Amino acid sequence: MEMTRTTGAAVLLSAVTTVIGFSVLMAPAIVPVTPIRSVGVTLVLGIASTLVFSLLLVPTLAWLLRYNRRATAAAWSPVSKAPVQHWYAVVGVVVMVTAVGVANLDALSEPITGSSEAPDGIDSLEKLATYSQQFDSGQTSLFVFDASQRANQNGTDNIRDLPVLDEIDRIERLVTQVESTNTTSIVLFLRSIPVTIELAGGVTLYEGSLWDLLHDECWESNDPIECGPWLLLEASGEGGREALRRDMVNVVFDTLSEEVRSMLLNEAGTKAIVYVEQPYMNLNVAAGLRNDIDDILDDEPLLQSTRSSHLTGGLPVSLDINEGIHETQTRTTIITMAVLTLFLMAIFRSPRIGLYTMVPVAVVILWQPLMMRSGDVNVNIFTAMIGTIVFGIGVDDAIHMMHRIREEGESPTGLAHAVESTGQTIFETSATTISGIAAGFLVAFPGLVNFFTIMALLIAAAFLTSCFLLPALLAGELDLRSLIKHRSRAVDFSGGVTSSERMQALDAVLEEGGGSGE
Fold first, then answer.
1. Cβ atoms 84, 428 nearer than 8 A
2. Cα 420 to Cα 1, 79, 315, 496, distances in angstroms
3. Which among 13, 139, 197, 461 has the fewest CB atoms less than 10 Å away?
C-alpha cells in the first residue's frame, strides 16, 4: 500500500503525461502520415494498459512473493553527491554538448532513403542499382500535357495536331537539359519511325525519320526548285499536302495498340503523358532536379490554351513523403513539448517545477542530431518518430526524479537522497530497456537497426539528464541564491550525507535539571 501511495502516484503521473504526449501522434491535423498515426494509437493504448496492469498486478505479486526492497548500492552514495556538489561541471558539460547538438540540427533534415527501410541482401534491389547506373534510369516520374482547352482546327484529336506535338517536343527538350534526365512520349514514336520516299526511276525524294519528314519545309513551301516534287502532292487528294501530312500522323496514332495508346494518351485524345526517367540518387540532389523541372513546366507555354502539370510519380511522391515526415517530426516535437510543459505546470501547481522537469527532456531532444551524425544512422519513417517517443521515455524519468525530490525536499541532502534512491531505479529500468532493445540490432532492416540504435542512445541520455542534470539545476539555483544573499554556498557536504535508507530512529532522553541523571 505504501508503494502504491508513493511510487504509484509518480507512475500514474508519468503514464498520464506520456499518454498525452503520444496523443499528439494521433491527430490528423498534426500528423498527416497515416502509419505514424497508427503508431500513436498503439502507444497510447499500450501505455494505458500497462498502467492498469502495473497498478493492479505489481503490488499483488510483490505481496504474494514476499518481496523485500533491497538497500541502495553503496556506490550510489558518492555518485549522488556529485551532481549536487559539482553542479556547475554538470551544467557546463551539458551546455557544451547541447550547443554542438543545436549546431548539427540539419542532421534531422537529411533525406529519407528508401533503401534504409529494406532488408540487406535483396537481389532485386542490387540489380535495380546496377540497371540505374548503366542505363541512367530506373526512377520514373511523369507530367501531363493538356491541350483540352485548345480549339480543334485540324478535324482530328487535339493531341494529334502538329503544333501541339511541337509544343510537347519543345518542353521535352527543355526537361532533358536537366542533369540526369530523359523523357519519353508520343513524340519519341514519331522520331523512331524510319521513312524512305522514292519516285519512279529510283529517285529518293526523302530518307530519314517520320518526325523530320513531318517538319520538312517543303510541306508549306512553293519553291519550284527546292520543292518541285512536293508540289505534285497537291494533287494527291482533297486537302493537298496538308491533308496528307495530317493523315501520316493519324496512321501512326491509329496503328498503336490500345495498351500503348493508353500509356501515352487519354481516351479523348486531348492529353498526353510525358515520362521522365532519372537514375536513383540522393533525395537532396533529386529534390533540386525536381524543382528545376517544375520551374520549366510552370513557364508560360508558347502554344495558347495548352498547359503542363507539375511532375508527379515515383520521385515526387518520395520527396513529398520525405518532406511530410520531416515536417511531422518537427511539428510533433514542438507541440508535444508545449503540451507536456503546460500539463506538468498544472499538475505540480508550479510553473517553475514544470519547466525544470521538462529541461532534461528538451536537452535529450537537442542531443538527437549528434546521434544522427554517428555511424550509418539516417532519417527514415522509423527514426522520424523518435522525437515524440523520447518524450515518453524522458518525461517518465524526469517525473520520477522530480517526484522524489519534492518528497525529500529541495535541499542539498534531499537532492542527494533523491539521486541515490530514484537514480538507481531509473538506471536499472534504463539498462533493462536498452537490453531489450538490443535484440533489434539483429534485424535485417537497416532502418529498424537505426531506430533501435538511436533509441538505446536516447534512453541512456534520458537517464543521465534526469538523474544528474535535473538535480544539478536545482542545486545550482540553491547555490546561486545563497551566494547572492549570504555570499556563501548553500551546497556543502563537508559533514557528509547520510543515506535515508541507513538512517535509524534514536530515542531521545531528556534529563531533569539539565544535569546528568543518576
1. no
2. 23, 7, 54, 14
3. 197
Separation in Å, CA 125 to CA 162, 282, 381: 41, 16, 19
Question: pLDDT tens digits for 32-67?
Answer: 667 667 777 877 787 777 777 776 776 776 667 666
Dihedrals phi, psi of 353, to nearest 5 degrees = -65, -40
The C-alpha atoms of residue 243 and residue 160 are separated, in whole angstroms, by 13
Strands (DSSP E) contained in 305-374 are 307-308, 312-313
Average pLDDT over residues 10-22: 70
Give bridge partners of residue 208 from the DSSP assignment: 195
DSSP one-letter code for 489? -
pTM above 0.85, yes or no: no
User: 66 with 336: CB under 8 angstroms?
Assistant: no
Paired strand residues for 197? 206
**Judging by DSSP bridges, how do beta strands 271-279 and 182-184 pair with one another?**
antiparallel
Cell of 418: 533523491
Beta bridge partners of 308: 145
Count Cα atoms within 13 angstroms, Cβ side, for 84: 25
Q: Cα dist. 187→9, 191, 211, 264 in Å?
A: 73, 6, 8, 10
Pair 388, 340: CB distance under 8 Å: no
Distances (CA, A) of 339 to 21, 48, 335, 347: 7, 18, 6, 12
Measured CA to CA, the distance from residue 119 to residue 410 in angstroms comes to 51
* Average pLDDT of the residues in 389-400: 78
Closest to 175 in 3D by CA, of 290, 255, 93 = 290
Q: Is residue 112 scored above 70 in pLDDT?
A: no
